[in-house]
């Protein structure tokens, strides 16, 4: 998908920002581009090696697309697409925790390891692809 390498591998945006911004820039999710700022603190697994930032970026974008705008609205559509995303990502990578992904797929916990960005870009790109697939499937339904 256009933009992922430019944003993430270059070091400009973190994983969460990249996924959200690419989905917006490519018209997959209709959200204002400046909303990417809401994801700045989510990279690196919430800065604490928790949930992968790519996962957070995708689920935030899906929640934006299918979420409710008031308390009386249903959460069902958003819950469905987020759960679908999480299931697919976990099926492919075995987990969605930042530290576990790095340890099991990269062999290091070092956030400064030179091979981290290229490997994490696989998680970023796949998160974008899975979210895109889900949006396209929902559009056909």
Describe it for me?
The chain is mainly alpha-helical. The protein has one domain (4-140). Helices cover 63% and strands 0% of the residues. It is built from seven helices and no strands. It has helices at residues 4-9, 15-25, 43-49, 53-66, 76-93, 98-105, 116-140. Helix 2 (15-25) packs parallel to helix 4. The longest helix has 25 residues, at 116-140. The radius of gyration is 14 Å and the shape is globular. The model has no long low-confidence stretch (mean pLDDT 92).
Note the main attributes of this structure.
single chain; 141 residues; mainly alpha; 7 helices
Mean pLDDT: 92
How far is the first residue's CA from the last residue's CA? Answer: 23 Å
Q: What is the number of E strands?
A: 0
Q: How many helical elements? A: 7
User: Number of folding domains?
Assistant: 1
Short description:
By secondary structure, the chain is an all-alpha fold. Helices cover 63% and strands 0% of the residues.
Strand and helix map with partners:
Layout: H1 4-9, H2 15-25, H3 43-49, H4 53-66, H5 76-93, H6 98-105, H7 116-140
